Fold:
Amino acid sequence: MCVILAKKIKGEWNLFKFRDRKYNPTYDIKDYLVNGLEVTYLRDKKSHWIEGINDNKVTLVSAALDNHADASIVTAAEQQNTKTDKLFKEYLKNTNLRNYEILKRVLRQPTIEEALDVIVSNKFIGNTFLTDGEKLYSIEIAIPQAKLLKYRHSDDYKEMPYKEFKVDIMNNLDENDFKVSVKDYTNKTIAVKTNHSIDRKGLGYVENQKGYESSIKRREIALNYLKNIKDSSIEDIVYMLSNLDLPKFDSNPENRPLRNKDKINLDKEERKKLNISSYYTTDIFGFSPSKKTIYVLPLYSKIVNYNTYYKKDTKTHIIVLNKNIFMEALKVIEK
Structure:
């Protein structure tokens, strides 16, 4: 349940991201040439999700819009249904691999227009910012929640365990079920998105759905905070964004852009009592097209081959920021 941000700094678009997971990710770094174009990315070894950039400055960030459509219906049955659980895990695996292939294809494109075409033609579900530093596109792609709910409450699906419904419906949708919005944000100066749609109504979380309030609040807090940040280095902005865990932004840690694991990762009953999920922020990313560099502040993740990678002479770069600076700052702030 990520937060993605875009800010124009000294005339160039830069991207940022709070990446949320239910586990501590392990990344490896991949870098290679495709038709003379250098591509570098971090790959989550569990989900295969990647954060990358190419040496033509093309880069992107995404947040989920594939949110639950009334998952509360008949959830008791799936708790004991190992067949359903197995089907769902297979579905997630296939979805993760599909996203991995699409993201790789995006990063192999020499221009932002060709990268945009890959995202749209492959119906890459999510809230996405795509930039080359000069232009910024906002892309929203998903199945409208109203349509998913209509299917969910139909006679064919209403008694079916949610996970089984999700697998079946996603495997049987056609292109007309997806809604696509592409907006040129180039003339803006700032943009933030979470897990509901902005440019087109009804995608991702919708009003009165669990998760909607948090999505709204996280966006508002991050947007207002980013507006007040003056032009600074990408590294400094990443460190500044690490302040967005503070209680002054919202009493509920679920609604803060940075979800601290120690506050989110409570026992199940405590999470239920506070109405918070088990997603927490594992990394903060910054993307600089002009420097062809990704900055990553790992909060609860690790990169297995960074010591080997950073010695290479490459056009595109990944720089790992100092987690200890973040942790020490957090201690001072919380005193």
Summary: The two ends are 29 Å apart (CA to CA). The chain has one domain: 3-334. Residues 82-107 form the longest helix (26 residues).
